[in-house]
Recover the amino acids of this structure.
């Protein structure tokens, strides 16, 4: 009996110790074979790390036989030291002395000059599975530039923190709403890893012209959310401090562009609240909870960020498998209208950003009209016809 118990405990320990190995780890385990003797550019940021938090920049810089020639910076910079939305400057990386080319400023697509002399551009960034996150737009623009310049493109794959089965929200992007926060006509929550999205971009947007190679993960399955991977979470931006926050970004992020209510950005609960100085917390919570949204509840909350008293609701996703994340903010906006507020009575620039992030002007008009039923998006067929790396 004691032996059986010991065997059981050993098995549990092995299961607990199992974790996903990301693309950079698989590349290193191969002895960096695909990069041997090549002149390499690296598009990455602070999230490009191995399981021990060693930077991909430093790993490739020290890799025998790999000639790391230049770095390319998305939003927040290659070391994560630039504020959200702020332009990133060309610079020299302090640690390696490598030239850093900005792809989040006047230039969002690598120029021929930037790519000159490179054999391959490597991409290693953790995103959050949501269309409006700029990293995926940067990846796509870099793929386009590489296709035009005859430079290979390699994706070191990473998990989709929302898992590979969740697909939600507005399913396309209207032509006049296409922007860097809605670059591609994909669902708002698209259910792909970076490598899978790169395959889609290459086949549907670039006509297969990009010489694309993907270094797959080991151990990741579509049912895995980030907490199941065994990997450490590096904040993808200051307002995504934990992997759980990525669950709330699609729940309130579109609404947050209006600025008529605060969603907690730059405060202690980013993307987890809807608060304002003129709201009534109890009434808003009661109105929202009366909807009995699957897997979601709302708690009255009272905050004082910056010394100004605000109140409203905190969003709780109690059962992620049942919750429709993206719809949460639509219900909040309708509840605000029902309670006499005017969430869409904001400057035109704010409305424009709402449209760009949602990918649609029609969505805003629909939400602003209480007589119109809330939109229902059928995402059931999105994944079925795609080339998926992790079936």
């Amino acid at each position: 009996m004691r032996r059986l118990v010991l065997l059981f405990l050993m098995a549990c320990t092995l299961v607990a110790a199992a974790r996903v190995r990301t693309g950079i780890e698989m590349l290193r385990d191969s002895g960096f074979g695909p990069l041997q003797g090549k002149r390499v550019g690296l598009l990455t940021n602070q999230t490009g790390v191995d399981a021990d938090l060693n930077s991909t920049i430093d790993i490739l810089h020290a890799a025998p036989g790999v000639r790391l020639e230049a770095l390319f910076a998305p939003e927040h910079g290659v070391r994560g030291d630039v504020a959200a939305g702020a332009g990133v400057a060309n610079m020299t990386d302090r640690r390696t002395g490598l030239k850093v080319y900005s792809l989040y400023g006047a230039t969002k697509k690598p120029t021929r000059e930037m790519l000159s002399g490179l054999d391959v551009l490597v991409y290693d960034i953790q995103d959050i599975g949501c269309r409006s996150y700029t990293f995926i737009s940067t990846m796509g623009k870099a793929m386009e530039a590489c296709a035009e310049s005859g430079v290979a493109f390699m994706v070191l794959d990473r998990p989709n923190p929302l898992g590979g089965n969740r697909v939600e929200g507005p399913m396309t992007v209207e032509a006049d709403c296409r922007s860097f926060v809605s670059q591609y006509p994909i669902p708002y929550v698209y259910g792909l890893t970076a490598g899978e999205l790169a395959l889609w971009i290459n086949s549907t947007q670039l006509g297969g012209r990009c010489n694309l190679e993907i270094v797959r993960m080991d151990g990741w399955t579509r049912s895995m959310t980030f907490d199941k991977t065994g990997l450490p979470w590096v904040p993808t931006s200051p307002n995504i401090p934990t992997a759980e926050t990525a669950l709330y970004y699609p729940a309130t992020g579109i609404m947050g562009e209006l600025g008529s209510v605060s969603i907690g950005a730059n405060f202690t609960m980013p993307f987890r609240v809807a608060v304002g100085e003129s709201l009534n917390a109890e009434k808003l919570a009661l109105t929202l909870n009366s909807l009995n949204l699957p897997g979601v509840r709302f708690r009255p909350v009272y905050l004082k960020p910056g010394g100004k008293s605000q109140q409203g609701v905190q969003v709780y996703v109690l059962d992620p498998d049942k919750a429709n994340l993206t719809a949460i903010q639509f219900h909040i906006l309708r509840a605000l209208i029902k309670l006499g507020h005017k969430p869409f009575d904001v400057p035109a620039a704010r409305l424009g950003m709402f449209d760009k992030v949602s990918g649609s002007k029609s969505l805003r008009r629909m939400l602003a009209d209480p007589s119109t039923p809330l939109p229902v998006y059928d995402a059931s067929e999105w994944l079925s016809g795609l080339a998926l790396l992790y079936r």
